[in-house]
Known about the structure:
With 369 residues, the protein is α/β, with parallel strands linked by helices. 38% of the residues lie in helices and 15% in strands. The protein is built from eleven helices and eleven strands. It has a seven-stranded parallel β-sheet. α8 (215-231) runs parallel beside α9 (258-267). The protein is globular. It starts with 16 loop residues before the first helix and ends with a helix. 46% of the residues are buried. The model has no long low-confidence stretch (mean pLDDT 97).
Amino acid sequence: MAVESRVDHIGSLLRPPALLEARARRDAGELGADEFKQIEDDAVRHVVALQEECGCVVVTDGELRRDSFQSEITAACDGFENVSLEAWLWGDWHSESVGDRSTPRPPGLAVTERLRKRRNLAAEEFTFLRSITARTVKVTLPSPSLLGNLWDPERSRAAYPTLEDFLADVTSIFIEEVRELQRLGCRYVQLDAPHYPLLIDPVWQAFYESRGWPLQEWLARGIEFDNAVIDAAPGVTFGFHLCRGNQGSRWLVSGSYEPIARPIFQGVRAHRLLLEYDDERSGDFEPLEHVRDDQVVVLGLVTTKTPRVETIDRLTQRIREAAEIVPLERLALGTQCGFSTSIVGNAITEDDERRKLTTIAETAARVWG
């Protein structure tokens, strides 16, 4: 049965302070694996209870066990070199509220050997989460081609002569993962694909094209890999998230979805599109004209970047505006991105997080009943 919730959020949640402290102690060799695991499990219980109290129909584990939403590929597989936290944080980041920040790409970051899988990426996350909640559980995975960041034209060639060789291997691992998640009972998987909106920016387009594919091939081949993962688990509802970067309350690019809307909205066989629409950086709703009739659009109208207080009245107004393009029965409401796409987190508090999730649920109740 398809997931049809009007209330959604992208996935990541602020790491509780006790978990951040435990991670630091573990990394310093001051905390054993068993004790850390108990603290980690307790942190997941905490954020699940928070989501349930806020009225979330769909819950996640907040991605609390990960360094970043996309880091499990390197945590679960051997074959990479020079992977540090900065592998997931690099870029020129912008913010009017907390200021700009540039993080260099780690030197030598690359896949240098054929991938050797040591464990599943998200199956443990799901099985624990399934055991502590009766709500619909969502598991997030990166879009396979997002991980093109890890293929280097020089250092990776001995293991993977082409970018396509590497991404085909990544896709095979993700296919195994979603099949295992489905076997375990997972009904909702989300692919996160922030790299596609980055292609609207000339600097980022140049970076991705330097991996070996021109713009149109990035879209076409990337979507093929996405669909291979989606098609591997029929009966599972797939979400597909597009944003423009979210790290430490900062963003990477601005601009409408229009340049990429037709190939992605028409081409990706996901059931739910989770789209960033929290401010003017995202453009207007016109690109939603390209959304297929069998897709639900989760409007990311609630920001996770700042403590801004969204009101039910204003959110309702924005939903009605979008409903002029996509019928109201195919809309839902959510956040524009995660609250903590890595362990860094955004410049907000747990109280802000709680208020925003509650506002989403209360707005959805008013709009859809």
